């Protein structure tokens, strides 16, 4: 167990408000939001500044105590949950919520790691700018977590992932030193770009405490459509049509299977089917422009007209106002929650080349249905960047526990198929603890060796978020 002396030294750094040791108060930090992963911890430390983070890390390093960085704890792979030993310290960044600077001329915003994503969006909007990262959890996830998992979301097609949105970082290293890398430069060719080591590292190489992020001109006009399609192949063809005609005005292109939509229609409050008959697949298409009157509605209708002429689309509706736009996005955003009402949800977050999506879905669906007749396959995601959430629900009359016991087997079917198309078993959720052993079977051995070398260089004692990302 962690010594009382260590806890007292931590208390001296962060104060009474910054140290949590009572079991009732610890509970929310010890499991993920789904309840899929649970651990124990000696304490939760809640520093209020980068200097306090550095002091906490130095103390823990000196005593050989592992540190588990935690942001909004909204992840899906257990990356921010401590182990069961009770000896680790959870380092929560939730008190570090300052927006340090907004620079509309340089188009940057500098924020601390504990700032909630929605607050960054709002701070940017107050200056007439846009921070484009958009996630279902944006009201609770934090910038530190977004960086640590290289979050993607629905706007990657136009704006990229967090790797593309971050210009500079401030990081506390595993020995307590502070790397002051908060530079808002778009050109800086002075050697290795160190920030990319920490983005996507899930806290295994250091603690991100602040970041300089890119801003963009505010979007002042939008056009959104809900399109029914006969197949995934048709969706890929429609994507090509819209992209060719609309260019970088295309900000969102979200694919959903009929099964996904049926769950939302069944369990989502106020959800309704927009067409008279069901269709196998749907996409939500959104265009955006900085001009208030950009004629996007007409542009989108032209793209859809070409799709109908080529017999790609089966039906379509272009949203006529903000309420209808919100209703369309609610159908897309409600899928994950709606699936939970149907029993166990086996979640897989994969990516393949856009050109391979149709063949990938066809092959993977067939293999899963052969393995489990009646399985309900919930496929949805960001088709424009090749990212699919490939989730599985039991057959209608299936047993929950029996289905859960087959999770590894069914996951292998999805991941083996992904690998056969030169894809990745984690598109945007990270590896955490859920995929850390799996990745050894799907990632090049040399890549893993190089990753281990970086870990050894920065964290030779293995005290920074151990048991995550790298296979044992």
UniProtKB/TrEMBL annotation:
InterPro entries for the chain: FAD-bd_oxidored_4_C, FAD-bd_PCMH, FAD-bd_PCMH-like_sf, FAD-bd_PCMH_sub1, FAD-bd_PCMH_sub2, FAD-linked_Oxase-like_C, FAD-oxidored/transferase_4, Oxid_FAD_bind_N
SUPFAM superfamilies registered for this protein in UniProt: FAD-binding/transporter-associated domain-like, FAD-linked oxidases, C-terminal domain
Domain FAD-binding PCMH-type: 37-218
UniProt keyword list: FAD, Flavoprotein, Oxidoreductase
Pfam families, per database record: FAD-oxidase_C, FAD_binding_4
Translocase keyword on record: no
Protein family (similarity comment): Belongs to the FAD-binding oxidoreductase/transferase type 4 family.
Full protein name: FAD-binding oxidoreductase
Organism: Blastococcus goldschmidtiae
